[in-house]
Amino acid sequence: MSTPKTSFAADDGQEVLDLGAIFAIIWRGRLLILLCVLLGLAFGVWRGFIAAVPLYGAEVQLVLDPRDEKVVDIESVVSSLSATDEVIRTEVHILGGRELGGQVVDRLNLVADPEFNMLLRDPGFDPVQSLKNAIKTILGMEVYQITGDPDPAFLREKVIQTLLSNVEVVNIPDTYIFSIWVLSENPFKAAEIANAFADIYVENQVAVKLDVTAQATGWLAERVTELRGQLEKNERRVAEIRAQADVTSPAQLIGLENRLISLRSALSERSEEVASRASAQAELSAVQTEADQRAAARRFGYGALMSRASDPQTGWRAVLAQAARDLREAEAKEQAIRTSMAELEITIATQSDALTEIVQAERDAESSRLLFENFQNRLRETSMQVGLQRADSRVISRAFPPDRPALPQKSRILILSVFFGGFIGTVLVVALQLTRARLHSASQIANITSVPVIAVLDQFTQKVRPEDAAALGPQTRDGEAIRNLRTSLLMARDDVPPQVVVFTSAESGDGKSTLSAAMAHNIAQIGKSVLLIDGDIRRHYLSNPLANGNQHPGLSDVLSGKVALADAILPGALGQVDILPAGTVSGSAADLLSQGGLPDLLAEVRNHWDVIVIDTPPISVVPDARIIGRHADLLILLAQWNTTRQSVFADALGQLEQGGRSPDGIVLTKVKAGRKPLYGPARRSHDNYYRG
Q1: 577: exposed, middle or buried (C-beta count within 10 Å: 0-12, 13-18, 19+)?
Q2: pLDDT, tens digit, for every residue of 379-398?
Q3: What pairs with residue 180 in β-bridges?
Q4: Which of 113, 202, 504, 605 could form a Cys-Cys staple with 616, CB 3.0–4.6 A?
């Protein structure tokens, strides 16, 4: 039977899925699909009506209140929840968390409830749990079995896990409402657990706020005490500074600085006067004549003193004495101003430092006073807030015992069971149909190619390797099959019997090496001289057992000119069959076969042997078979039953035709007798041609 095509080429060359062919595949497998549907329905009936324990569901609803209605402003100490998406998701996790579940377990003493404590149940036989344990054992996983008295903490954790598996917390979309859904075998217990979750959650919110408020109050009280001490310390420091130094006001300090400026101006004037007096004295001392003395005295303001003198010499001495006295007076005044300036500068520096220190101390005291008053006010607000805290959530709908079970949903179980049964059946039908993409029969091969199937060989009754080909004697069933194939090969060409017969395959493992050796040995039994050539130069599957591990020179050495043909032949290596091993290869085998020496070699062996059988590598792996096949009288393509992939087989045919040599016949090998190949086994592993 051939596999129908499930796709076709569209006008633009794209491959399009053929829905009709797919529906045809499903229709042909309708009985298997119907069987899977019935099995699914039976499972649904067992699961929904027999095995399932009725569970009752109770629901309680809470609302998150984002309004801020505090009596006093304490927002920075403890604030209400904001209704953001992150906050809502966080609260959902808190409601369904282990901490809240543990508090519910403790309040309702669920550890003593057999519904949640597995150890209190009647052990009996649980097929589902037994199946789980068996699977864990097969996978090498540890199976936990509690024996004796378990640890109370461990037992409590297991009860919490069981409880939370029966609890679902959701946020109703676009609202601030949370729904807590609890399942239990008892309707009253379900309602009690649901209400316990809501009550404990609300109580925890108030408790957390009270705890935060108490912590804030204690911390603020400590800070207020510290700040009061700091304020008193700063105020004492201000008083001490004022008592230790006669501190002027800033205005008085400015007056002293203005006075210092005036003194600096007066000092400049006195310095100029001293310089003028000294210059005058120097000029007066240099005058010699009486006329010059009188003129100099008049110029420097001493003319009257000169006139009152009794004689010019006496008058001139009086002028010089007066000039000296004036210079000394000017210098004394200048020095007095300098002394006053120095004392005033010291006074200004002292007063400035004292004023700066007291200003800094007053600022520190003021800062301490502001912090103290701020923290004192915050402490007063926090203390007033104690007792006024309320939860951010409130219950808007308490849970009541339901009057009918919520689970199992029998109709839903039946519908899903039927659906999955049909789905699994459809998948099985398609999967089994896809396995038919492997070759199963001669008629299937006929749908792919016009090349005739010349033989269908059953799987050998025992594992046969190339070196065991002599064991396929005429008295065995396997030997008869080889003899029938021999007859077909020798009669393939009516005019001239074929002399060079090449065996190849689409994939490795199809038995071509064993068949090549068996065919060569069988032909030799009818009196013909036979040469078996190992054309698989890379792997030399034939040469390994027949040529002492391929240590003997062979085909590759003859083609490369290293040895003569006669030196490479192993006479009678397989009964009456001569062997030409693969030889040793350095470089590309395909390049070696294409260099031109192969036709001359085949022409030479034709003159010495009646039949030459050549074993070649798979076509899908290397191009060697296409190169050798061009020189063959008979090219035989092997395909393994139920293993060779149809796509690979078709590709091998295409490669041979592209190389200008189509196969002369096809042999289907390893057919399991007594089986109708409707569906093949599981998918074949990847080609292992190059594996050691």
Answers
A1: buried
A2: 777 776 655 667 788 899 99
A3: 60, 169
A4: 504
